[in-house]
Amino acid sequence: MNTVVPYADPLYRDYRPIVNVGEDDVLILDDQVGLHPSMGPIQKMYQDGDVAIIHGVGYENSPRSHFRSMDIWHTCEPDSLGTEGWLARVVRDLDPTAENVVTAVSMGPSLFRALVGPNVPVATVENINSYGMLTGLTPEEKLSRVLSRYRRMYSPAIGTGPVMDFLGQTGIDALKGADILAAAPANYTSDIEYANSTIADKLKGIAQIHMAGLGSRIFYCDHGGFDTHADQINTHTRLWTEVSTAIRDFFDDLEAKGKADNVIMFLYSEFGRRVYDNGAGTDHGAGGVCLAIGKGVKGGQYGQYPSTKASDLDQGDLIPSIDFRSVYTTIVEDWMGLDAVPIVGGNFEKPEFILN
What we know:
Blueprint: E1 4-5, H1 10-15, E2 27-28, E3 34-35, H2 40-47, E4 51-58, H3 66-75, H4 86-94, E5 104-107, E6 123-125, H5 140-158, H6 162-181, H7 183-186, H8 198-211, E7 218-220, H9 232-256, E8 265-267, E9 288-293, E10 300-302, E11 322-323, H10 324-335, H11 341-344
Parallel strand pairs: 4-10, 4-11, 5-6, 5-7
Antiparallel strand pairs: 1-3, 2-3, 4-9, 8-9
Helix pairs in contact: 2-9, 5-6, 8-9
């Protein structure tokens, strides 16, 4: 509610008398809603028709737990503990024989669960500029010997069998990926000066790999700190400045090289926030908002902003009106050109936010 602000709703300031966006500060989108004042670059992209705002996204019976909710978003399994990431299934469909170990790239210090699946190689990159430093371990026979030593070293603690085989193959794939991706920074030039933030660094790394033409199709990264139980006003201002500026730099970079038309960016959080502020921030909620950005996006707003009437709230939460798997279905079918049913686990009516 402080990201896509229902500024015309008189209940908004009743619910959030302290933690709100000033009416004069809202970046107006229409006569009902606007964006947080730090989202100027995204407002401009919205005005250009390149941003889709999907309202009220979530699922029933939100547990308000970071770990469980992220698990649900990563695996598309809201009723059971999922074992495979939804994007891992996408990667398997795109590259069923795992020929390209950099079809998917996870930007960060660890592999995101959405990308985890058996026989699905994923390159995990914390810093693209230093990622290729281990590629001296060649040829592959030498890599295998090194990794087998690790397997022997750790097997008493972890066990043997499929788990260790998976870890061993993951290690080989990671080192292969390092070898391939090492060329990306060397072949990259740009007149765009990215902002100084961790999200800008990640998006610059993604731009470098995308423009290197290595066959990478999926990139995943995050930007933490939005769990604003306290000091939300100042923290939101900083975070949305970082994210919005980095996104604008990223797309400016791709557009300057003619590489933007085949990229969309999807932004989500694992849950929305409670309707009532707590005096300094907001606590875990349910229904939230997602954004899709890019030249391939049919800009505008999708779904209805969840009702803020007290009688329509669920224990102080906005009630989701669009299942998150519906949004995934749009991306999988209309953007990736794949059958979404086995990937998201069923048939879901999709919001049509991708250009035909």
